[in-house]
Amino acid sequence: MACDGCDVWVEVPSGHIVRRVISPADEAHLLQGALATHAPDDPGMADYLRWSYAGLGVLRASGRAVTLAVFVGEDVVAAVTVVGCGEERRGQDFWTRPAQRRRGLCAALLSAAVRLDESPLILGVMRGSEAERLYRRLGFETVSHGCELARTFGDG
What we know:
This protein is an alpha+beta fold. The chain is about 35% helix and about 25% strand.
């Protein structure tokens, strides 16, 4: 799905601030929020997130990516990273802490992400999901139909 000029702007609840992740302290709070959201009891997922976030940090430092986050004090409760890919941008690693869901944070992040520059923002989404319905309400449109493939090894 893509949006290149959505007109929706969403306010966040009192005490929440949407801003860029810019400092090493921000990076640490971002990782802690992601770990609490995706891997509270999964050491393998936690290792993957640490590795992934190190790579996203390199992209941010090079100017090829921007992470927008919703902060409550120093805590990151929702985030999206936007990575420049030629003539378009792609939303990556989009998450909201479970206790903060259904409060408009995702919509606020996407509204801010669209405004980062003029190139289209592309998001991957599962067809028929709650996320797809939200993205469509925010003005995103289908631009392609993806394909996922898998193979197991061992049966020849």
